[in-house]
Amino acid sequence: MVRPVVSVLLLLLCVNLPLLADDGYKLWLRYDLIENQEKISQYKQTIQHLYYPGGSATILAGNEELMRGMQGLLGLKTPIVQAIQEATLIVGTPAILPQLKNWLPDTNFEPLGKEGFLIQSVKIDNKKCLIIGANTDVGALYGIFQLLKLLQTQQDISQLAITQIPKTQLRLLNHWDNLDGSVERGYAGASLWQWHQLPEYTSQRYKDYARANASVGINGTVLTNVNANALVLTSEYLKKVAALADVFRPYGIQVYLTARFSAPIEIGNLDTADPLDDSVKTWWKNKADEIYNLIPDLGGFLVKANSEGQPGPQNYGRSHADGANLLADAVAPHQGVVMWRAFVYDNNVPDDRAKQAFNEFKPLDGKFRDNVLIQVKNGAIDFQPREPFHPLFGAMPNTPLMMEFQVTQEYFGQGLHLTYLAPLYQECLQADTYAHGKGSYVSKIIDGTLEGYSLTGMAGVSNIGSDRNWTGHPFGQANWYALGRLAWDPELTAEAIADDWIRMTFSNQQAVIEPIKKIMIKSREAGVNYRTPLGLHHLMAWHHHYGPGPWIDKGRADWTPIYYHRADSSGIGFDRTKTGSNALAQYYPEVQKMYADPTTCPEEVLLWFHHLPWNYQMKSGKSLWNDLCDKYYQGVAMVHDMQTTWNSLEGKIDTERFEQVQALLKIQYRDAVEWRNACVLYFQTYSQKPIPEGLEKPDQSLEYYKKIDRKYLPGS
Ligand code: GCW
Q1: How far is residue 678's CA from residue 698's CA, in Å, rounded to a whole number?
Q2: Which H or E run contains 173?
Q3: Which H helix or E strand runs over 612?
Q4: d(C-alpha 268, C-alpha 260), whole Å
Q5: What 3-state class would DSSP assign to 220?
Q6: What's the pLDDT band for 714 if we cut at 50, 70, 90?
Q7: In sequence order, what DSSP letters do the residues of 68-135 get, joined into one string?
Q8: 445-449-454 Cα angle (round to 5)
Q9: 470 and 480 in contact (C-beta within 8 Å)?
C-alpha cells in the first residue's frame, strides 16, 4: 500500500521540480522549456532546420549553444543540421557562405565590423528563412545569443530585421583575484581560477563563464588583481594563463593581465623599474614577446600604479605617461593595449582626494601612446552608492578614457544586499559633461563619438567567485548581466535590461516580472537612503566597508568618514565650492554653475558639494536635519517594501531562490536599520535636534552601534 503513494509523491515532486529548486548556476542561460505551445511551434518552424557551415572553434561553440537552447527551450532532442536547401535558419559569414550577399542584396556587411551581426527574415526561393549574418564567427556567435534571447524572452520572431554593433570596443571584467585564490572585495567565494590545477586541468566552469560573458557581449577579462603580483608574469604562470585563454578564445574573449610596475625588479633581477631606463625597457619588451609567444591574442595590461601603495613611475620621478608608454611600447608590436588606471591619490593627503586624479592626469592629456586608455572610475572618490560623475570625463579630449564601474558591491551591501546597479551606471553614463556644450554625455565619451576615438571601453570590477550561483547574492547576477549589456550599448536603460534579465532568469509571467522589476529599480535608491543620502559618502566602517562607521576618526585621514561628512555643530557636508576645496572648478562651467548653487544643485548630491547648516531649508520645505532623517527612514521603509513585494512571489518562482532572497532581505532590513540608527544618532550629536515627530526612535544607543565590531568579513 505504501509503494503507490510513494511513487505518486515522487511523480508530483518531479513535475514540480523546476519550482522547487534552482541553484542559480545556469545564470540567465537557463533555457527552460517554453510553456506556451503557440510560441513553441512558431519558433520550431523558424529555427529547427539549421544550416551553419564551417568548423572553427567559435562555430562549434555557436552550434553547441544553439543545440542547447533548442533542446531546452523547445524540447528538440537531436541536433538538426540540414542541407542548405532545406534550412530555415542560416548562420554564417560571407567568407564561408558567399550566397549571403545574394540573399541580402541591400545589406552592407562592412559597418558590422568585427563583432556586429544582423538577424534578418528573408525569402530564399520562396521559402521563409532567418539569417544570422556577420563578418566574423564571433559576430555570428553574438547573433546566436541574441536569437536565443528573443526565444527566452518569448518575442515574436516571425519578421525580424535586427542589426547590432557594439558601441564600445573593449568590454571587460576586471577580476581582483589574487594568486592565492582569495578575491579582494569578493563576496562570492574564492577565485574561479584554480591556479594549482592549471594548465593541465581546465574545468567546465571556465567554459560556462565564457558562455555567460559572450552572451552579453563581454569580450575581455583581466584575470588578476590590480594590486598586482608579479608572479603571474613568470613563465610558470603564463602557461596557466594560456590554458585559460584557450578556453575563452572561441567565445571571443581575450585575456588581459595586471602588470606590477616593479616586476623587472621582483622577477627580472634588475635593480630598477625606472620607465626611462634602457634595461627596463628591454625587460618589458622581452617579457611581452614571451607572453605573446604563448598567448598571441592577449589583450594587454591593466595597471594600478602609484596608488594605495602600488609601485609606479613616480617612484623614479617619472610621470604616469612615462609609465604607461613604457608598457604600451612593449605590447604595441603585438597589437596589445595598456589600460592605465586614474584611481590615484596621494599618500600624504595634501588635498581633497576627489581632486587628485584630475590634477594628476589632465596635464598629461595627449602624452600617451595610441594604444593606451586611461581607465577612470565612474566617480572621483571610490564607487560610493552615489557620486557625481568623474570630472576627468570630458577633460582629456586627446586621450581615450574608458569607464570603470564596480560590479562587486564593496560599498553596497557586498554579497548580502539586493542592489541592482544598472540605475547607478545609467545615471553616470547619462550625465552631461558639457565638454562640447549641451549633450556631451559621459556615454558619448565612453563610446568614443564625442572626441572621435575608435579605441573605447568599459570595465566592471567583477562580482564573480566560486559560489555555485557565481555571485553569492542571486541578484548579483543581474549586475554582471547589466554591465555587459551597457558596455555593448551605453544608451540602454536600467529598466529594459532588468526586464530581459528577469525573463531569462526567473519567468516570462508578468506576475513575476513586474514585482521583481519594482524591487530592482528601487533597490539602488533604497541603499543610498539608508547609508549615505543627500550626497554623503564614505561613511562605512574601517576597512571592510560593510556597516556604518560615521564616527571613525583614526587612521589615514582620507580613509576616515569624518574627513568626508565634516559634520559639526554648524552643519554637515564637504564644501567643494570656491569657499572650500574648489573641486567644482574641475567641471565645465555649466556643470559648475549647477552644482555651485545649493538651490540648483540636485539634492541627491547636495552634501557632496556643500557644507550646509542643520536648519538649511530643503526643497521639501523642511530643514536639512529633518530631511536627512526622512531619507534615512525612507531607506529602511523601502527595504521593507522590497520584502513585502518579494513575499508576494511565493509559489510563483522556485522555492530555493525564493527562500534565499527572502532570507537575504531580512539581513538587508536588519542592516538598513543599523545604518539608519547609527547615522542618525551620530549626526544628532552635532545637530542637537530631535528625530522628527512620527519617526520611530532608535531602540539602541549610539554607543551600542559604535561597539559593533565585525570580524572575518569576506573580501577585506
Ligand atoms: O576602493 C578601493 C578598494 C581597494 C581597491 C581599490 C582600487 C583593488 O577598497 O580594495 O584595490 O579601491 O580600486 O584600486
Answers
A1: 9
A2: strand 170-174
A3: strand 612-613
A4: 12
A5: strand
A6: confident
A7: HHIIIII---S--B--GGG-SEEEE-TTT-TTHHHHSTT---GGGTTT-EEEEEEEETTEEEEEEE-S
A8: 95
A9: yes
Peptide bond into 613 cis (omega under 30): no
Determine if ligand 1 sits within 6 Å of the CB of residue 470.
no
pLDDT of residue 543: 84
- Terminal CA-to-CA distance of the chain, rounded, Å? 58
> Is ligand 1 within 6 A of the CB of residue 176?
yes
Q: Whose CA is nearest to atom 12 of ligand 1?
A: 382
- With b meaning 16 or more CB within 10 Å and e meaning fewer, what string describes 455-466? bbbbbbbbbbbb
Q: In angstroms, what CA-CA distances link 566 with 287, 351, 353, 394, 533?
A: 48, 15, 14, 29, 15
Q: Given the CA of residue 185, which atom of ligand 1 is nearest to it? A: 10
Q: How far, in Å, is the centroid of ligand 1 from the Cα of 180? A: 18
Beta strands (DSSP E) in 236-354 are 254-258, 300-303, 337-341
Location of C-alpha cell 574545468: 203
Residue among 254, 319, 326 nearest 287 (CA) = 326
Determine the average pLDDT of the residues in 247-264.
Answer: 98
* Distance in angstroms (rounded) separating the CA atoms of residues 469 and 659: 14
Cα(43)–Cα(72) distance, integer angstroms: 13
Interhelix angle for 204-215 vs 137-152, to 10°? 80
Query: 304 in ligand 1 pocket by Cβ < 6 Å?
Result: yes
Cell of 203: 574545468
Name 471's Cβ contacts closer than 8 Å, sequence gap at least 6: 188, 415, 463, 464, 465, 477, 479, 480
- CA torsion sign for 706, 530, 388, 382 is positive
| Ligand 1 atom 3, closest CA | 185
410 annotated active-site: yes
Active-site residue (options: 382, 525, 671, 674): 382
> What gap in Å lies between CA 203 and CA 209, rounded to an integer?
10
| Distance from residue 418's CA to the centre of ligand 1 (Å) | 21
CA distance 418 to 530: 13
pLDDT classification of 542: cutoffs 50, 70, 90: confident
Residue 80 has pLDDT above 70, yes or no: no
Residues 6 or more apart whose CB falls under 8 angstroms from that of 20 comprise: 13, 654, 655, 656
Q: Which atom of ligand 1 is nearest to the CA of 176?
A: 8
- Which pLDDT score, from 0 to 100, does residue 9 have? 46
Protein residue closest via CA to atom 13 of ligand 1:
343
184 close to ligand 1 (CB < 6 Angstrom): yes
Exposed e or buried b per residue across 187-198, where buried means at least 16 C-beta atoms within 10 angstroms of its C-beta: bbbbbbbbbeeb
Active site residue 308: yes
Decide whether any atom of ligand 1 lies within 6 Å of the 226 Cβ: yes
Ligand 1 center from residue 26 Cα (angstroms) = 29
How close is the Cα of 308 to the center of ligand 1, in Å?
8
> Is the predicted pLDDT of residue 266 greater than 60, yes or no?
yes
Give which of 296, 248, 311, 299 is closest to 61, Cα–Cα. Answer: 248
The verdict on the CB of residue 185 being under 6 Å from ligand 1 is yes
In whole angstroms, give the CA distance from residue 668 to residue 416: 7
449-491 tens-digit pLDDT: 999 998 999 999 999 999 999 999 999 999 999 999 999 999 9
Least trusted range by pLDDT, from 42-46, 59-63, 256-260, 514-518 = 42-46
pLDDT bracket for residue 79 (50, 70, 90): low
**Residue 57 CA, ligand 1 centroid: distance in Å:** 37
If you measure from the C-alpha of residue 627 to the centroid of ligand 1, how many angstroms do you get, rounded to a whole number? 32
Counting ligand 1 atoms within 8 A of each CB, the residue from 227, 406, 544, 559 with the most, and so the one to mutate, is 227
